[in-house]
Amino acid sequence: MAVDGLLAVGGILSLTLGISGLILARNQKLEVIWNKRFAAQLLCWIFISKGVANSLRSVGYETELWRVILYAGHFTDQIFGGLIMLLALIFPVPILRTRKQFKIGIGVVLVYSIISLGAAVFISINTPLASFLGLYLVPGFIWTLVYLKFRFMSGHEDNEEVQGVADVAILLLILMIGHILFRWVGMFTGSNYFYFMDLYGGNFLNDYMWSQGLAAAVIFGLVIVCGEVIQATRGRVRATSYVIFTYMSIGVLSHIVYGSVELVGSGGGTLTGTELKGLSAWQQIWTEITATLHFTMMRPILGLYIFFRYGLIRISEDNEQVGKTMAIVLIVVATSALLEIVQSLIPLTEMLSAGILGVAIAFGIGWEERSFQSLISNPLRFPIRTKGTYFPELEFDKNEYRQLDRALTIMLPFLMFVAFLLHWSLVNPF
Fold it and tell me: What residue spans define the domains of the chain?
């Protein structure tokens, strides 16, 4: 399967998760603490914005509407960055601890987002002002500190609630920077495949600040993997330990695969190979099954797990069918896409691939049913015993939650329209 096809699949998965999650979050009857309620909304819109971006970019830039794709993708990435920042400030542990602080935090992120969007429109898309320079640095720093605090909290080493906070911090960090961890060795070897990642190019300060963010992401990953190694020596290996070990191990293998590759092109993107030259056929395949797979399928799967396992969305009889349908769609689509990847590596006849797909879907649905019931049956409630200390109780009415949805429902279509205006005006993005 071509990378563009995977991006389209990723768009479908992300949009499905985001829209279904909003429906579930709005209609849930069971009580959810305020920071989890807002976190559910933010995560939903994060996936909606990424779904739009992936869907647009799957078309490629070899089209008359390339400006629309470029600007719309950039705008949705900026929304993604602002929402990630807000998410880190309230979940899993609220940094904003009062209603006043919460409003100030939203205001600061909103102002910065407006400045960033305005700079992309009126200056250039690759100016430092048009980039969310703290995208990896600030959330990564917060989630790493949360991980260290709760994983190594004295006297709570075996407390599932306390350790669960550290677990979700790891998962959120991986969701955000997992693709960077696949290439972490390249930072220390000064490899082109690492420092060329995700850059538009053409602006030294922008490239420098972005490279700084990539380096910070690697440091956060190394801190967590070292922490999990220490815990492993104490016999406290958790499921999230294996996740971070896997990502970092693939990073070592990626260095072997990419070696001394020299990339050329106008933009680094995600090393998809769509805009770049310098990757061999095998290296492009490796990119598909690592970084691109993370962007397109692992992020929604991680999001689904976080929603249900950590109680951001509580399932009852009223909304169980919607939640189950969402999980089934994710599993079936992801299974089909994975089979296509296998088929691209190992040539199969159409009849054989159809048979394998049927079997894979059957097993996938069965797995989904068991996993779904397991996730919703006993969601992890963050430390009840420390409630008030780390988790302040704030009151918000339903209209305040809905205001966020309304604002983003207006913002996304408006920015898409702006992208079309810039295209019709033949604006030079750079």
Answer: 3-314+379-424
